[in-house]
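Worked example

This section walks through a single chain of length 306. The input is the sequence exactly as stored; nothing has been trimmed or padded.
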Amino acid sequence: MIYIILFRTALACSFVVSKALLDFVPPFLLAGTRMTIGGTLCLAYVYFFNPSSFYIKKKNVLALIAVIICSGFLTNGLEAWGLSQTIAAKAYFIYNFSPFIAALFGFLFFHEKMTRNKWIGLAIGFVGFIPLIYNDLRSDNILINTLPELAILVAAGAMVLGIVAKKKLVVFQHYSMIMANGLLLFFGGLISVSTGLYTETIAWGSILATPSLYWLLPLNVTLTCLIAYNMYGILVTRYSVTFISFSEFLGIFLVAFLGWAFLGETISNAFWVAFVLVAIGMYVFYKEELRQRTMQSLFDEVKRLK
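Given that input, the structure is written out below as tokens.
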């Protein structure tokens, strides 16, 4: 349980620290700088302390590119841009729609079975997204006003695709988790920095003259790239995916509290309505998944006895 608490605390703090940095650093530049530094540290660790794992296979180049673009550039870049336009708790909440997105991707692309109860849970979960953008839906410029939320949702989807590709590298091609994370962070960071340099207005003098940069950025790198990215690999070996997914609600409370305490953010009633709806949807979905797994285990045991 201690690993779950540490992971969610690190991830929650990283969102709040990122939000503080975004007050004076453009989003793609921030995401890219953070990833490049974090990736360099991960690769250096593998090179010096586990050199046998420091390699790239030619046959894995396409899979690596998919991981770099999805888990690296899109996930971090779009998340940072969306976070710069909204409060930390809301951004974290939307970012953690990933279990529902993963279920939808599994049905569409991997032919995974979806029962009626799973569809009900999925539908309730996505309905929970509506209160978060309700005011934007009533405005004249719906698309423009909802772009930050949609960007974070796309970031969550990209993260799911990136996890699938990274899992293949780690499980089937035997890349170390730190090596895979180092590659996606380093090269994804370079792409993000390049995007920032070409598309964002960067006030270098103002950024470098801000004292908090020199402790917030190292803290952000440590929390996001060194702790959160690599600790997830430990969690999946110790806990079920269901338990890890439900622990996301601990993170939502932590981000809401930290955003209120350190950034002066206020949480609307619509946020808590969305929170309850998504919690219900996730409960319905995972209750059905557990039932399916139990039935499958019984079926396998009967088959084995025969």
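What to look for: The chain has a mean pLDDT of 85.
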